[in-house]
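[SOLVED] Predicted holo structure with zinc ion

Edit: marking solved, answer below. Original request kept for reference. I posted the sequence and ligand SMILES and asked for the 3D complex as C-alpha cells.
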Amino acid sequence: MRKYKSGGQLETVICNCCGKKMVVKNGVLREGAISVHHAWDFFSEKDGEVHHWDMCEECYDNLLGQFRLEPDVEEQVEFI
Ligand SMILES: [Zn+2]
C-alpha cells in the first residue's frame, strides 16, 4: 500500500501482508519490496478490477517458501 504527498512524491509504503511500514527517504523506498499492479481480465472472477499492493522482502520470501515451483530468476542487466 502506497501513499503519495500532494506533489506526487512517495510518502509511505506499507506491506499489505504484515503491515510493516517500510523506510522511505526523500520519496525513495530504501528497502527491498515487491509492488504488484494487476488488472484482472474477463477470464477471472474479478473482471474489471485493478489490484495494487506491496509486500516487504521478508513476506515475499515466506510466500515463495510456499510455492511448489521456484520462480525464474535471472541477473538484471544494469545500464550505467
Ligand atoms: Zn511484510
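OP edit: The pocket of zinc ion is lined by residues 15, 17-18, 20, 55-56, 58-59 (CB under 6 Å). Thanks to everyone who chimed in.
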